[in-house]
Specification:
This protein is of the alpha/beta class and 504 residues long. Helix content is 31%, strand content 25%. The chain has 16 helices and 24 strands. Helix 2 packs across helix 3, helix 4 runs parallel beside helix 5 and helix 7 crosses helix 8.
Length: 504
Amino acid sequence: MPNPLYDALFGRHIGQNTPFLILPDGRTITHDQFIRSAARYANAFSDKGLTAGDRVAVQVGKSPDALALYAACVQAGLVFLPLNPGYTASEVDYFVGNSGARLLVCDPADVTELTPVAAAAGAAVETMDNTGRGTLRDLAATLPDTFDTVDRGAEDLAAFLYTSGTTGRSKGAMLSQRNLLSNAETLVDVWQFTKADVLLHALPIFHTHGLFVATNIMLLSGGAMVFLPKLDIDQLIRFMPQATALMGVPTFYTRLLGSDDFTAGLTAHMRLFISGSAPLLAETHKQFEERTGHRILERYGMTETNMNTSNPYDGPRRGGTVGTPLPGVELKICDPDTGETLPQGEIGVVEVRGPNVFQGYWQMPEKTAAELRADGFFITGDLGLIDEDGYVQIVGRGKDLIISGGYNIYPKEVEQVLDDQPGVLESAVIGVAHGDLGEAPVGVLVADGSRDLDLEALSQTVAQSLARFKCPRKLVVVDALPRNTMGKVQKNLLRETYGDLFKG
């Protein structure tokens, strides 16, 4: 039995001395070099006793070696679990423990703090810094650069991605080989990627967008990536003449437009600009097209499904929409109470079905049953409609999800930390419009009267428990939270009240 994901994305490049990763320091890593590096890591995993189906948690900075760990896991039949490097030790403790990871790979700077976390879960620890150096590379360096690929089937799990839960308990979305490969195959075709393409890659690789969309597409098409460690507008502009495509979140495009060096001439040779992970403002669409002549292509996806819809490559790319369902993906708008399909043009909950839809939430059968119907449709929680031309519009988000700089923030998780602070009676966390991030989290607090709230000190305390991107950009104190007749906090009123907080 073959290994479909490895064979399609990685194995086909063995012996190919074509450019794969173009690095800011001028180095180029070929496809063959990358595959051989991954094989060494696969051997390292094997030497540590890992076997097919075991989970490998990876919390490291972006580097070619970090990406090779993904390939190594696929080749060795392991389940890859990427974690945001910004997560605190207490957050990592949950992910490692819940997943049952056999190995945790972390930054050397964090090893003292995370070793007991791994030990409590029965996991081994190896290190890798943002240049790829660490104990794991030292181990792999002495091992063969070939590895007997482990047989896996299409329905075997390839990855876990944890998505924050509305109750504060994160959910491990189980993604199979079929989920990842089918989506990559569809997107290569729909967006017309070929081996001639060079993608500007400044996205993180612990997230669906940067890993399973951008990277898988380029591996499948045989193209190259300018592999940047993070979003740096000067570097984007510097390397754009070498590229044909860019994938980003709205923040990429607002910051590019803020630079005088970003000109029509710089983009004249570019084939495609893609945006996702958060809605793109109509004004950004307009300004970008006026500046460059290019129309940004928006698409819609999520952790549990990868990509669901896309504006067309050839055809009208409509701002305010996320295009039409991808080939092989079914999408319908349903009544949130009854689950009945609604007529075209009516607003309801978006549900999707297709080979891209995940297998369920790890060790959460009740949550899986609540969100993944028996007929295969996934209840996204997003509110949307299908217009008269078949384009999907996302008009709101269920569960008060905040998307800040492309990262998902579930208010409940932040509220639980705020509510635990001395002097805080209760809190409400909302997303407020932010010129750079799209939205930024704001914490609205009610004091319990036992002490004066020191907001600066409170912010510092919260930062010890939550990843930086989840921490409220501002804290405000009110006498009481607005509530409806049923006692539910009216966050819509709070969003109206503080909607201009970051303006001016």
